[in-house]
């Protein structure tokens, strides 16, 4: 039980950080910074301990806490680690100290409020990942908007008010429909099984007719797709990214976007498996469109923050592709890609922030030949560029390669049965890799090489703090790129569970019809998961 | 009927009455400066009386068919009385004399009567006793011409509501031969046209009192014309009283279809219009008035559900909603005069000067917008859950989407608080101690509800 307590400590540590910031009114700005960094580092170390003690072979939740919260509704305060969230929790706590350290010199206004908001953000993000009860999940999911609204709105750039309102109003629209779907889902569960529960494990047993599943998937999916974001729901992202302060961009790209894909993996697809399989080609097409469209847009940007923002859309398209491929390798690749993108995009935004602090412009045309002016900076930037492209031995390679492999694994049998579109889509996704190399390399070439120019000369190269931050990121990139087997072993059971859940037939009364048609034998008793014997591709 | 029953069952009312007499005495004896302390103590004592009676499960009908108390009625009284305490606290700097307190306690007496009514006679008496002092309260800020206009508007529309209620009650009496509130619940599903018209008129009277579109037009003027404590009183206690009385009126029965559409469509219009109109207001109280119009819409949505969940939803909602409003009003910064204080511009850059107040207003706004983890979210969840449970899926989804429209103007306030440069540098008087204690009281309650919503819901 001490271990379960530790997860609670990790979750609530940021709030303790806020409390200590509020409790000591006379704190100097520098003391606030040191205190925040200490808390974040402590949180990372604790969550690393949790990661290493996470048993990859154990089924179910680990470090679980389950306390009644609103007993009348069957709402529990239930948190725990499983293969779905263990890597994402580690990613969140890994980026935490880097965000704090990265903002040391960039944030000089309302320092205390800033770190308090970063802590609240950290708390709500971790809460979203570890929550195992839909009510609790929704609470954290929605509460996350508040700190992000303030971070972009107070410390952002010129058009920060526009960007932050756009961000919140976009996201909140998805959430309100999700809320309707949540209540409806819980009521249907109650009506069909007699259980009143918000626990994920119970909700996986809900049996709903296909049209209902479709509507609910659309409601959940809209909310998640806005967060990912999937084209055409992505228009908030460039504004939010560009206007946010560096710390905001890093958290946004590093963690917040993963909420969407995590939501699809943990809730959207497994809760409504039949609708998911029905619309898998559409979702796959949207994922591929995101990959290619994001890459094309990134190619033509002149603002360096926008390049990375659009590249995020492209990279998260791979995650969606891996998840919807329903192939074990693809799913594993999607999880690795989430973590990889979190580290790489987080690192790139930190680097953009560093150069912005020195030169106060994000126009790509204003820069050139930084390799001569800032040699250390250029080395790190080149490494991150390569990781973003997905060069072997970097984490980007592992993720993208596995996703594409999974996609082909899943679509090839369909092609042999005469269904060509999925295979074509998978092939289309490969062009994203080429486009990725194209825009990132041309960006790096114009940025680092060519005639030397910078808006402010002389510019000072990276200091120790900045090198340390980037060093951590580079180490993480190569660790994940060279030794992907270890983290993948921790997520394997979850990937299998996800695959089974999405492959299961849970259409309630109409399941009998489908059994006749599809000759898939399902067990008779409704409350149990009717898991078909086939795995891999769903249909 | 023994005197003891009469004494115990009406204990909160008796305390209020005694307090009123004492306050009048103080006014005559020119001891008005202690009026504030006396009235806070009186309302606190009445709250304690109501809570402790409710906790023992006391149920009695001292005047059968007219006036009865049961734990839920006592809890409803306790909520209203408890909300009145911080309202009295924030009045400290605006109203130094006893008049204000006499009127507020008189109005609270009316609310208590209303929440125990079993017949239309007592209901009428309660509504009038509740409203009449408020007309005067609006006028108390007579430094401004708008308050006279606002009071007159409020009075005329309040009178219309009374007339409508009486007409409805008369028609119901004609149809059923009874003035008891049970006749209303029975008439809900009646096919007798006279009974149906009676029901509609009574509902319209409640819509008028609660400011449901299209009967809402008095609210923005009245809210803007009054002073801050009076607006807080109207937005929290009057609204809570009216809605809790409506729960008593409707009982726990499900509302049958044509009437259900009436109590879904107009509140829906109210949510939409309230949220849209609030977006362009420049006066804080006017914005809160439109927000209250929208919130009245959510509250009437609760009547689509049935059973004990209806009282639970309304009681929790008015508690959360009232706390948020008082918290926001308590934290409003002072300015050179009341009109300037009311401008939203007055909030610009508040975080730089008064971080605590800015955070309090932000919490209130986020909670009113229904963003978790604040109590407004659980309250809204409770209501929409009941609507879904009753099978009105379309209305529930439409209501939720309409509630989304409200997020923008609440965020705009937060934008003013945190993201805008300060508008003027005039010297501002600091917050009084009473006002700060009101903020702390509300904050404590808000945190308690946010952390233990299950416990609070379990009480209703």
Describe the secondary-structure layout.
The complex is a heterodimer of chains A (539) and B (460).
Chain A: H1 2-23, H2 29-52, E1 62-70, E2 75-81, H3 86-102, H4 111-130, H5 134-143, H6 145-155, H7 160-193, H8 200-203, H9 210-227, H10 236-243, H11 246-271, H12 273-278, H13 280-300, H14 304-325, H15 328-359, H16 370-373, H17 375-389, H18 395-416, H19 421-448, H20 464-482, H21 485-503, H22 511-518
Antiparallel strand pairs in A: 1-2
Chain B: H1 3-9, H2 11-28, H3 35-55, E1 60-63, E2 67-69, H4 71-90, H5 98-114, H6 120-139, H7 145-176, H8 181-187, H9 193-210, H10 218-225, H11 228-250, H12 257-278, H13 284-301, H14 308-331, H15 338-342, H16 350-353, H17 355-368, H18 375-389, H19 393-404, H20 407-419, H21 433-451, H22 453-459
Descriptive account of the structure:
By secondary structure, chain A is mainly α. Helix content of chain A is 72%, strand content 3%. The longest helix of chain A has 34 residues. Chain A is globular. The C terminus of chain A is likely disordered. Chain B is an all-alpha fold and 460 residues long. Chain B has one domain. Helix content of chain B is 75%, strand content 2%. Chain B is built from 22 helices and two strands. A two-stranded antiparallel ribbon of chain B has the order 1-2. In chain B, β1 and β2 form a beta hairpin. In chain B, α4 runs antiparallel to α11 and α6 packs antiparallel against α7. The chains are: A mainly alpha (539), B mainly alpha (460). Chains A and B meet through β1, α5, α6 and α7 of A and α18, α19, α20 and α22 of B.
């Amino acid at each position: 039980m001490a271990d379960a307590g530790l997860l609670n400590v990790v979750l609530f540590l940021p709030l303790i950080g806020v409390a200590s910031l509020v409790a000591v009114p006379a704190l100097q700005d520098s003391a606030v910074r040191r205190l925040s960094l200490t808390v974040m580092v402590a949180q990372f170390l604790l969550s690393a301990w949790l990661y290493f003690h996470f048993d990859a072979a154990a089924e179910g939740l680990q470090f679980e806490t389950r306390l009644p919260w609103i007993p009348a509704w069957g709402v529990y305060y239930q948190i725990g680690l499983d293969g779905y969230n263990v890597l994402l929790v580690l990613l969140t706590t890994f980026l935490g100290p880097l965000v704090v350290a990265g903002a040391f010199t960039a944030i000089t206004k309302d320092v205390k409020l800033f770190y308090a908001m970063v802590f609240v953000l950290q708390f709500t993000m971790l809460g979203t990942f570890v929550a195992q009860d839909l009510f609790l999940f929704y609470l954290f999911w929605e509460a996350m908007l508040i700190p992000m609204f303030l971070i972009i709105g107070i410390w952002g750039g010129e058009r920060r008010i526009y960007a932050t309102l756009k961000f919140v109003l976009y996201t909140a629209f998805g959430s309100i429909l999700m809320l309707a779907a949540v209540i409806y889902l819980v009521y249907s569960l109650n009506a069909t099984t007699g259980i009143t529960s918000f626990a994920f494990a119970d909700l996986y047993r809900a049996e709903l007719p296909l049209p209902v599943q479709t509507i609910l998937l659309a409601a959940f999916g809209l909310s998640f797709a806005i967060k990912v974001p999937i084209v055409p729901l992505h228009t908030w992202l460039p504004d939010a990214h560009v206007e946010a302060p560096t710390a905001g961009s890093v958290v946004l790209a590093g963690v917040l976007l993963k909420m969407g894909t995590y939501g699809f993996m943990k809730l959207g697809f497994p809760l409504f498996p039949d609708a998911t399989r029905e619309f898998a080609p559409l979702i796959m097409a949207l994922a591929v469109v995101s990959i290619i469209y994001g890459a094309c847009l990134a190619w033509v940007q002149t603002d360096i923050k926008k390049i990375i923002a659009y590249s995020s859309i492209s990279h998260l398209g791979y995650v969606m592709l891996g998840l919807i491929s329903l192939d074990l390798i693809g799913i594993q690749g999607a999880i690795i890609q989430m973590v990889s993108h979190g580290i790489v995009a987080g690192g790139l935004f930190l680097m953009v922030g560093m150069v912005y602090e020195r030169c106060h412009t994000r126009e790509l045309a204003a820069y050139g030949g930084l390799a001569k002016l800032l040699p250390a900076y250029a080395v790190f930037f080149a490494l991150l560029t390569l990781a973003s492209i997905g060069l072997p031995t970097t984490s980007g390679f592992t993720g993208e390669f596995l996703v594409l492999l999974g996609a082909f694994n899943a679509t090839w049998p369909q092609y042999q049965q005469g269904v060509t579109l999925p295979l074509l889509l998978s092939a289309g996704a490969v062009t994203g890799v080429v486009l990725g190399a194209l825009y990132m390399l041309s960006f790096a070439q114009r940025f680092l090489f060519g005639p030397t120019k910078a808006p402010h000369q002389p510019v000072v190269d990276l200091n120790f703090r900045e090198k340390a931050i980037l060093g951590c990121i580079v180490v993480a990139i190569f660790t994940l790129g060279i030794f992907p087997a270890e983290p993948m072993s921790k997520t394997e059971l979850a990937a299998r569970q996800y695959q089974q859940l999405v492959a299961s037939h849970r259409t309630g009364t109409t399941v009998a019809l489908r059994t006749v048609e599809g000759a898939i034998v399902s067990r008779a008793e409704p409350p149990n998961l009717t898991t078909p014997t086939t795995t891999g591709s769903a249909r | 009927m023994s005197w003891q029953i009469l004494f115990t069952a009406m204990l909160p009312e008796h305390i209020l009455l005694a307090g009123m007499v004492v306050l009048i005495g103080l006014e005559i004896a020119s001891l008005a400066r202690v009026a504030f302390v006396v009235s806070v103590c009186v309302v606190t004592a009445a709250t304690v009386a109501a809570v402790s009676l409710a906790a023992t499960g006391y149920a009695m009908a001292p005047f059968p068919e007219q006036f009865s108390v049961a734990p839920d009625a006592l809890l409803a009284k306790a909520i209203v009385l408890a909300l009145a305490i911080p309202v009295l606290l924030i009045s400290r700097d605006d109203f130094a004399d006893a008049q204000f307190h006499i009127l507020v306690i008189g109005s609270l007496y009316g609310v208590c009567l209303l929440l125990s009514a079993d017949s239309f006679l007592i209901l009428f008496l309660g509504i009038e006793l509740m409203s009449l002092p408020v007309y005067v309260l609006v006028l108390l800020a007579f430094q401004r011409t708008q308050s006279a206009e606002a009071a007159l508007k409020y009075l005329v529309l309040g009178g219309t509501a009374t007339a409508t209620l009486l007409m409805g009650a008369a028609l119901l009496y004609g149809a059923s031969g009874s003035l008891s509130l049970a006749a209303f619940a029975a008439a809900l599903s009646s096919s007798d046209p006279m009974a149906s018209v009676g029901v509609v008129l009574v509902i319209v009277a409640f819509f008028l009192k609660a400011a449901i579109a299209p009967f809402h037009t008095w609210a923005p003027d009245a809210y803007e014309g009054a002073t801050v404590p009076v607006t807080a009183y109207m937005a929290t206690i009057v609204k809570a009283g009216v809605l809790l009385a409506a729960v008593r009126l409707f009982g726990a029965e499900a509302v049958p279809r044509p009437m259900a559409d009436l109590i879904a469509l107009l509140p829906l219009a109210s949510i939409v219009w309230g949220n849209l109109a609030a977006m362009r207001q420049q006066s804080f109280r006017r914005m809160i008035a439109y927000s209250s119009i929208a919130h009245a819409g959510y509250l009437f949505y609760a009547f689509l559900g049935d059973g004990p969940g209806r009282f639970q939803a309304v009681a929790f909602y008015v508690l959360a909603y009232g706390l948020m409003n008082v918290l926001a009003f308590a934290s409003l910064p002072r300015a050179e005069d009341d009109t300037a204080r009311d401008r939203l511009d007055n909030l610009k850059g508040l975080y730089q000067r008064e971080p605590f107040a800015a955070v309090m207003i932000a919490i209130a706004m986020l909670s009113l917008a229904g963003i978790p983890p604040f109590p407004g979210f659980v309250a809204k969840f409770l209501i929409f859950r009941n609507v879904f449970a009753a099978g009105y899926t379309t209305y529930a989804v439409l209501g939720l989407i309409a509630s989304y429209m409200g997020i923008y103007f609440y965020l705009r306030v937060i934008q003013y608080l945190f993201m805008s440069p300060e508008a003027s540098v005039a010297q501002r008087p600091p917050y009084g101690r009473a006002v700060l204690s009101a903020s702390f009281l509300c904050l404590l309650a808000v945190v308690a509800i946010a952390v233990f919503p299950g416990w609070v819901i379990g009480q209703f």
